[in-house]
Amino acid sequence: MTTQKLLSFDWGMMAPEFTILIVATLLSLIDLFMPNKASRKPLALFAIAGVVIAIVFATLQIGDPTGSILFDTYRFDAFALAFKLLFLFATGLILLLAMDYKGEKNWQYRGEFFYLILTALLGAMMMASSADLITLFVGLELLSISSYILAGIRKTNLHSNEAAFKYVVNGGIATAITLFGMSYVYGLTGTTNLYSIGEALTDPIVEQNGFLLLIAFVMLFVGLSFKIAAAPFHMWAPDVYQGSPTPITAFLSVVSKTAGFVLILKVFILSFLSGQGGWHTTILLELQPYIAFIAGITMIVGNVIALRQRNIKRMFAYSSIAHAGYVLVPFVSLSLLVFKATWFYLLAYLLMNIGAFAVIQFISERDKSEDITAFSGLYKRSPLVAVMMSLFMISLAGLPFTAGFIGKFGIFMSTLSTGHYVLASVMVTTTVISYVYYFNVLVQMYFRNGVVDRIRPSVGLLLVMVICTVGTLAFGIYPSAALEFFHNGFDMTQLLEK
Amino acid sequence: MDSILLSALIFSPLLGILVLLFVPKTDEVVIKWVGLLATLLPLALAFLVFIGFDQTKEALQFAEQYKWIDFHIQPLDAGNDFVISYDLGVNGLSVVLLLLTAIVSTLAAAASVWIKDQWKGYFMLFLLLEIGMLGVFASQNLLLFFIFFEITLIPTFFLIGKWGYLDKEKAAYSFLIYNGLGSAILLIVFIILYMKAGTMNFTGLSAYLSQSPEMLERLYMGEDFRLGLLIALLVALGVKLPIVPLHSWMLQVHVQAPPPIVMIHSGILLKIGAYGLLQFGVGFFPGEFEKIAFWIALLGVINLLYGAFIAFVQIDFKKVLAYSSVSHMGIVLIGIASLTEAGTQGAMFQVVSHGLISALLFFIVGLIYQRTGTSLITHLGGLAKVMPITAGFLLVGGLASLGLPGMSGFISEFMAFLGLFKTMPVLAAIGTLGIILTAVYILRAVLTITFGETKPMLISIKEARFVEWLPALILTFFIILIGVYPAILSDMLHLTIEAMTAGKGAMS
Fold it and tell me: How does DSSP classify residue B424?
């Protein structure tokens, strides 16, 4: 590749990524040259500023035409942008949480706490934009490796060590399996470009070797179900969620999971939908029952086991597993709503989950306890926080006037429009089961008496809670705000254009 | 199109919530006054709607419609885009229920003087609950109906779980789970209808579903499919009503919830089931409804007899009333299942009448409990000597409940059975047994409480003050008003019910 060729690319489309990359690099340099004793906490502000600038760049790109650089491995389209905005927004909120994270006694801020979040974000953004298995994999690994370290960043905490260890071993295996699946795809089609794969799959020779394709699909899916913590590859999630610092748990449950869904959307919809003509598909349709099965099992496992959790972060791990199940549902139906339903649900999930984690962080740090009883009597201690937490819980449970309800409604529509009544019934039943554990938090906050001292969250935490509350309510009462934004700004057919 | 009266009515309790936000939470008197006054605004607006409703017009009135959610996708077999509007409007049915809701809410707010702590949270939830109930009856759109329907779940859960009696949390959870499952099934039915018809508007759906059978068959809405949807609806709304095998949660709620909430619950929330059954069951699926009418009537008779039998052996007055509610809901089912105009009128009369009577009875239970700390029949003998006025109202409530002519209960039972005798005489004959049983258990309970030797623990009890029994007086007034002048309701209901039973669909 000549320099000239390199310069001829339209690098402008990577402006948000570059911003994050530059900020992360600068942060690591500043961290290196800062005096050892100096507090690293202000670095968070710098990181947040970087994310905000990236959001501005990304917003300016709305409506830009599709383009690709680096020999079609990196692609700019509405799909990528829609999800990048989610990543950026979520990471911004999580950085606010991270800035106010108190940890345990000997916790001190380390520079890498912030710039690793940014590199993980960068990985997720790359995944959203990649048009090639290789870039996809690089993005995935950048995200994963950053997350492994972040999970174990509390070096002296046993739970944290366990989390990092479990995560890295399980994650490594999952990555290996994904890569193995990718190698089959490459072997069958002779290309790593996602768009060419779709076309190559219609080749008669490939069709004769359908069983190989099946292996490829299953392997890929195993790897990806790990990423989104879908059953039966969810076992790592509770330990890792419990052991990680709370902001990182929020990161894993929102950004990492969303990235997993982006990957599934890209790989499966793109490569397994036969290139031309869009929606009539081959292998993906045949495999629908299996995805449906996984979605169903995930919802059941997540919701049922969550009932018995006493540790709030573990409970949220299972809740997060359950939500992975819900979001898998539109993939089964493959209706026209798949992008909209998934995107809206992930947006709603981002708001309510990060909001809830902000409250969890606030309470668990305050009381040095992650037991659910730490929430008892919260209404008396801080009515505002209790009300906001109630809203997040009600939204997670999918009750009306919250974004969570509209999200579930969209998913329901996509299932029922294609006649998947069984799956819809499973979703409905498990949702009702989930009422029990979500409402249990409410019961703790309002019905039980706990410590009675008045408490108030720090400015950063309060800001996150308020933003999430406003979002959850606004998109619940007037979902068109988000739906119109998505519809007008992001033409999803761009994803399918070659 | 231009009226905003309904929106104002639904959201008027918000004003009270806002005011309450600024009242210090220890200021009991102010909070209770604000709570009570806040229910007067919706009451006034509901009266306005009731008076302004033109009985001679079959069309929807006070309609409002704004575009709300647009999913920007084309439905598979309908021409229009998937848009959901914010649709409000009333017909004869809903206008009556709106007024009932407003009246019972105000009186329940008055009965809330007995609440002992956390008044601020209590009244905020109470007003939120009222928003939900009013919204349910004014919605002209399935999604909106569902949202308001679910809105009632959350405050009720708290009101039971926090302010109820000993086993309150268990009752709150079983309320949540049963009703959650019911509404989940409801949601599935609604979305299926939406995906098929491309609209959630009641009128639009009725029009869609009243196409020729061949056309519906072609749209994958064959007969069996519609029957399936109707049965799903029956189960979903049967939880709310409640129909017998699905009723166990409701007994717990009646026994454990605080009296004002039971007034609301038994007076209005249960009626959502009946309303939904009429509006969606009969309104959307008239043909299929006819096919299973026998079974619904049978369920009604079972409800009626089962409730009455079990009520007879209860020693807790609250439980007697709870089973009596089960029994009385049977009459609603019978009336609807008769599919005659008289029967349906009877069902609606029963809905209203039971709403008033059960509110009255639970009000008195609350009054008695507040003074004596018990609701066991055997502990309450001879109440007439120490609390003559209260005992008098109890007797009135009991007589109204067993269907004494001249009171609202009589009209409803009479009409419901009149309808059923026309279509299913055998079932109706069996059902009449229920009326006798009702007389037996009500009289047993009421007479034991009122007369006989005054129990020692009651001797020092004081009679209720005027303001305390005023709500009972108001309820009694309405009960007798409907009893002697039923036209005040039937004129309202007439056209809507005629349209429904003629199979023309819910609205239009």
Answer: -
Q: What is the pLDDT of residues A287-307, one digit of tens each?
A: 788 888 999 999 999 999 999
Q: What percent of chain A has pLDDT over 90?
A: 30
Instruction: Using an 8 Å CB-CB cutoff, list chain B residues near A420.
Output: none
**B184 reaches A (C-beta below 8 A):** yes
* pLDDT tens figures, B6-50: 899 999 999 999 999 998 888 888 999 999 999 999 999 999 999
**Do residue B177 and residue A435 have CB atoms under 8 angstroms apart?**
yes
| A425 shares contact with chain B (CB less than 8 Å) | yes
Q: Where are the domains of chain B?
A: 292-508
Instruction: Answer whether B161 sits within 8 Å of A443, measured CB to CB.
Output: yes
Pairing of strands A67-69, B83-90: unpaired
Residues of B in contact with A421 (CB under 8 A): 188
**CB-CB under 8 Å, B191 with A412:** yes
Predicted pLDDT at B504? 45
Low-confidence winner among A33-37, A57-61, A115-119 (lowest mean pLDDT)? A33-37
- A480 in contact with B, Cβ within 8 Å: yes
CA distance B182 to chain A (A): 10
Asked if B173's CB is within 8 angstroms of A412's CB, the reply is: no
pLDDT tens by residue, A462-487:
999 999 999 999 998 888 888 888 87
CB contact under 8 A, B151 and A424: no
- Cβ of B181 within 8 Å of Cβ of A429? The answer is yes
pLDDT digits (tens, 9 = 90+) for B184-218: 999 999 988 888 887 888 888 888 888 877 777 77
pLDDT band at residue A490 under the 50/70/90 scheme:
confident
What ipTM goes with this model?
0.88
